[in-house]
Automatic annotation (TrEMBL):
GO terms for molecular function: flavin adenine dinucleotide binding; sarcosine oxidase activity. The keyword Oxidoreductase applies. It comes from the Eukaryota. The lineage of its organism: Eukaryota, Amoebozoa, Evosea, Eumycetozoa, Dictyostelia. Belongs to the MSOX/MTOX family. This is FAD dependent oxidoreductase domain-containing protein. Coiled coil: none annotated. Its cofactor is FAD. Keywords: FAD, Flavoprotein, Oxidoreductase. The keyword Metal-binding does not apply. Residues 39-397 form the FAD dependent oxidoreductase domain.
């Protein structure tokens, strides 16, 4: 399956492998495409799909990625100016994955000569009895991660963007930061093509057919057809629709939510620096609520979101509903209480994105229970972007039947669910 050409030689010959990515040109080349047998086809060009494509192409596999919209589009889960990157997880699996993600991001930056990660440091804070904070401190100790517990005075002296409450538990970890989201997608797409991957946008997959354990046929809405040995379904909130259209006989226990993040400007005459060069990322844990903040990057204002505070949708094509007024007011209250230097009367800007959530909020990275050449790599439940290149490597190993690079990852396997199999339909 793998190209045995030495890595250095493949780098030297990269330019000869670049494939034309124009959708119009694809139509006249469909006959040639039909004759190709790919090692793997990736469906979905967000952070998960593009990272998988990049990692497999870098290892010499013949890879095709199909994206139903345009590069770095804003209709899914991978767009925007910034996302939090952090080691601050209570689960050891995510800590191992994060420790692998940081050097993978550095490698992408090196290969592309593009800055994608900026380290700001990170605050996790909230009510002192918040179980997530207690578990987080235990995880830091268990995994030998440097951290500091700050007093209110220490925290406000170092981070004047915040005003904390007297009894808050405040934990600082120096390695947290921001990943530039849309910029990262564009960069990973470009690198994937440099390593020989073929990427087609505006190419919606309508169904797949598993012919055998070594052959899958892919039919797109424009009637183009592709052949591959293996396929990765990394299409987020659209994954169940594709699985059902393809008669793959399972329904994944997923819930799609429409989330909104808000950007809040500093008040007039405020001299505090809220940019990424001074302001840390943060996560607040209340009794039953979680907010996250990112410093100003490209869009004016501090980005603040209510984690899992959006509307649940039936599917990705559902009519979009207004953000819940009571949740909007909770965001405003949080801004006024903890970041009083910001104007919480009205946000400067807002952005809509989607979470595709499992019931336990862990990822799915696993083979289909019946078809071992179908890999399901979705969803990220609102916290996956930071891990992108590491998840891509996880998928690449899975496609090549290599051991997991992070050891045990049972949290990502389908066996944890009571998967419902439905009868195979007789009609096409």
């Amino acid at each position: 399956m793998s190209n045995q050409q030495p890595y250095a030689r493949r780098i030297q010959n990269i330019q000869s492998h670049i494939v034309n990515n124009s959708c119009n040109n694809n139509k006249k080349n469909n006959n040639n495409n039909n004759e190709l047998l790919y090692d793997c086809v990736v469906v979905g060009g967000g952070i998960t799909g593009s990272s998988a494509c990049y990692q497999m192409a870098k290892e010499g596999l013949k890879v095709l990625m199909l994206e139903q919209f345009q590069e770095a589009h804003d209709r899914g889960s991978s767009h925007g100016d910034g996302r939090i990157i952090r080691l601050s997880y209570p689960e050891d699996t995510y800590v191992r994955l994060a420790k692998m993600a940081y050097p993978e991001w550095s490698e992408i930056e090196r290969l592309s000569n593009t800055k994608l990660i900026h380290i700001t440091g990170g605050l996790d804070f909230g009510v002192p009895n918040a179980q997530p904070l207690i578990d987080l401190i235990d995880s830091y100790k268990r995994n030998n991660i440097d951290y500091q517990i700050l007093t209110k005075k220490e925290a406000e002296l170092n981070f004047p963007q915040f005003k904390f409450h007297e009894n808050d538990l405040i934990v600082f970890q120096k390695d947290s930061g921001v990943a530039y989201a849309s910029k990262s997608i564009k960069t990973i797409w470009s690198l994937s093509k440099r390593f020989g991957a073929q990427i087609l946008d505006n190419k919606k997959v309508s169904r797949i057919k598993v012919e055998s354990e070594n052959l899958i046929t892919i039919l797109c809405e424009d009637q183009s057809v592709y052949k591959t040995k293996k396929i990765v379904l990394a299409c987020g909130g659209w994954v169940n629709q594709l699985i059902h259209n393809s008669q793959l006989n399972i329904t994944l226990p997923l819930e799609i939510s429409q989330e909104t993040v808000f950007y809040w400007e500093p008040k007039l005459n405020n001299t505090i620096d809220y940019t990424q060069f001074s302001n840390p990322v943060s996560i607040y844990y209340g009794e039953s609520i979680c907010f996250y903040t990112l410093p100003q990057i490209d869009i004016r204002g501090v980005k603040i979101g209510y984690h899992h505070g959006g509307n649940v949708l039936e599917n990705m094509e559902s009519i979009k509903l207004p953000y819940k007024k009571e949740n909007y007011n909770k965001v405003k209250e949080f801004v006024g209480s903890y970041m009083p230097g910001l104007n919480n009367d009205k946000e400067y800007h807002s952005v809509v994105c989607h979470y595709t959530n499992t019931s336990d909020l862990h990822f799915i990275v696993d083979k289909h229970p019946r078809f071992s050449n179908v890999i399901i790599a979705s969803p990220c439940s609102g916290h996956g972007f930071k891990f992108g290149p590491a998840i891509g490597k996880l998928i690449s190993h899975l496609v090549q039947n290599k051991p997991s690079p992070i050891g045990s990852n049972d949290e990502f396997l389908l066996k944890r669910f009571n998967i419902n199999f439905f009868p195979k339909r007789t009609s096409a």
